[in-house]
Design goal:
The chain is of the alpha/beta class. It folds into 3 domains: about 200 residues, Alpha-D-Glucose-1,6-Bisphosphate, Chain A, domain 3 (3-Layer(aba) Sandwich), CATH 3.40.120; about 220 residues, Alpha-D-Glucose-1,6-Bisphosphate, subunit A, domain 3 (Alpha-D-Glucose-1,6-Bisphosphate, Chain A, domain 3), CATH 3.40.120.10; about 100 residues, TATA-Binding Protein (2-Layer Sandwich). The chain has 17 helices and 23 strands. A hairpin with a 3-residue loop joins β21 and β22. α2 crosses α5, α11 packs parallel to α12 and α11 packs across α15.
């Protein structure tokens, strides 16, 4: 039977919103099931009310835990509270507000009663804290989003005063306390009805959109985009950036069309992802099929872009190259920015995750810039972005941010709107599309082939993979090349990578256990072509299985 990936969703693919919302309020999690407890991944707690993993009980417990955490940390400024367009996001935001107001926390919600991208929340936190007098109380925030996850999912993420994702010390404490509260039947959770919470003296409003959109000229050359007349097609993909794109075009007088302004918590307009599920992944050709087809059928755009539901990821579509591989675009963005941002610290480093393409290493070398390779998770880029010592941080999964023209911090969370607009700046300034520029990089550095596959693993095997040391790997060569590095810690900061990376002159692979499935993920790349990549993947699986079995 032919795959339906890339085809428009049918009625049987759509989540039952009534059942989803009823389950949010009615279902009590079974704490004996690990999948129904609070657990923070790299981007907060995620789950579905239909699976008893994202329900009212979870949200009020997590929020109370955040209240207690911020009190313990001496965080007494306002808390910015934002949501995306997922069906569970508004009820979860209301639940959080009930707890925050009952605890007397000063909360700022969207003045437009709309949706807020994750980068706009990060920008708001940082702007408030930068403008506050020395020694004044610092702000933090919560964004209710599961990012690109399917419509039946919910997500809840805490951003401390540095504006980026909370580190594991914070999320570990919050998750443990939330589970304690759940185990105690929510005794200790303070709460008032949402109508009272909205009217509370501690609840205020904040114009996230204007704060973000009006500040864009500090980080992008919008004059160049406007003067070159770059034609932009922006697809919010039903997400929180929906009102932002129209305002960006209008306020900055850009030739910008919002391709699809529809907001539908079922996402019935979406094309199905690779596994025939609705998933707002703007780096997936299947999920982005509508925009790709529009471009291939002659849409009059020089650059077309997509964002996921909270706009922390970007997808770039060019007339000559289709949807760019996220790694390819990161390489182009880095090469362009470090050549054109003269106000940045001349010693600022380039940040990338260790499963991003090695063409970035070669670009960094040509720029004479130090490369800092960190584990998966955007939180690792926060210190560099804050200080200006790492003016760019990017992940292989289409998430990145970079600093303002003067080198000061823009956001410390991923910004898909920023990276999407950068594609238009690059086109305006260079006269070439990002895909054309990537071809130039491959002519100079070689053309890597990159892929990720999953391999079955038991819980015990995944645990063993996460605890490997380099001495556990005795192999000396990989796919015909001598192994030059065996890494279980990131070379950029010495942090554990929770797995293994093996490097040769022209190839590498990294293996990491999945946090949600009985598989481990193998990321691999070769500069010697597709056949060599397959050899790398096969030998990688054999090597890892031999070590963890």
């Amino acid at each position: 039977m032919a795959s339906r990936a890339g085809t428009v969703a049918q009625s049987q693919d759509l989540v039952d919103l009534t059942a989803l919302l009823d389950a949010y309020y009615d279902v009590t999690p079974d704490l004996g099931d690990p999948g129904q407890r609070v657990a923070f991944g790299t981007s907060g707690h995620r789950g579905s009310s239909l699976k008893a993993s994202f329900n009212e009980a979870h949200i009020v417990a997590i929020t109370q835990a955040i209240v207690e955490y911020r009190a313990g940390q001496g965080i007494t400024g306002p808390l910015f509270l934002a949501k995306d367009t997922h069906g569970l996001s508004e009820p979860a935001q209301n639940s959080a507000l009930e707890v925050l107001a009952a605890n007397g926390v000063k909360v700022l919600i969207d003045a437009r009663h709309g949706y807020t991208p994750t980068p706009a929340l990060s920008h708001a936190i940082l702007t408030y804290n930068r403008n506050a007098p020395a020694g004044a109380p610092q702000a933090d925030g919560i964004v209710v989003t599961p990012s690109h996850n399917p419509p039946g999912d919910g997500g809840f993420k805490y951003n401390p005063p540095h504006g980026g994702p909370a580190d594991t010390d914070a999320t570990g404490w919050i998750a443990n306390r939330a589970n304690e509260l759940l185990e105690n039947g929510l005794r200790g959770v303070k709460r008032i009805p949402v109508a009272e919470a909205l009217e509370a003296e501690t609840t205020g409003k904040f114009d996230f959109l204007s704060s973000y959109v009006d500040d864009l000229p500090s980080v992008l050359d919008l004059n160049a985009i406007r003067e070159a007349g770059v034609r932009i097609g922006a697809d919010p993909m039903g997400g929180a950036s929906v009102d932002y794109w129209g305002e960006i075009g209008e306020r900055h007088h850009l030739n910008l069309t919002v391709v699809n302004p529809t907001v539908d918590p079922q996402w019935a307009f979406m094309t199905l992802d690779w596994d025939e599920k609705i998933r707002m992944d703007c780096s997936s050709p299947s999920a982005m099929a509508s925009l790709i087809n529009r471009m291939s059928e002659g849409a009059n755009y020089d650059v077309a872009t997509g964002n996921d539901a909270d706009a922390d990821r970007h997808g770039i579509v060019t007339p000559d190259g289709g949807l760019m591989n996220p790694n390819h675009y990161l390489a182009v963005a880095i090469d362009y920015l470090y050549r054109h941002r003269t106000g940045w610290n001349p010693e600022s480093v380039i940040g990338k995750t260790l499963v991003s393409s090695s063409i970035i290493d070669r670009v960094a070398g040509s720029l004479g810039r130090k490369l800092v390779e960190v584990p998966v998770g955007f939180k690792w880029f926060v210190p560099g972005l804050l200080s200006g010592e790492g003016a760019f941080g990017g992940e292989e999964s289409a998430g990145a941010s970079f600093n303002k023209m003067d080198g000061s911090v823009w956001t410390t969370d991923k910004d898909g709107i920023l990276l999407a607009l950068l594609a238009s700046e690059i086109t305006a300034v260079t006269g070439k599309s990002p895909s054309e520029l990537y071809k130039g990089l491959t002519d100079q550095f070689g053309a890597p082939v990159y892929a990720r596959i999953d391999a079955a693993a038991t819980r015990e095997q995944k645990a063993a993979l996460g605890k490997l040391s380099s001495s556990d790997v005795t192999a000396t060569d990989l796919a015909g090349e001598t192994i030059t590095a065996k890494l279980t810690e990131a070379p950029g900061n010495g942090a554990s990578i929770g797995g293994l990376k093996v490097v040769t002159e022209n190839a590498w692979f990294a293996a990491r256990p999945s946090g949600t499935e009985d598989v481990y993920k193998i990321y691999a790349e070769s500069f010697k072509g597709a056949d060599h990549l397959k050899q790398v993947q096969a030998e990688a699986k054999a090597l890892v299985d031999g070590v963890i079995s």
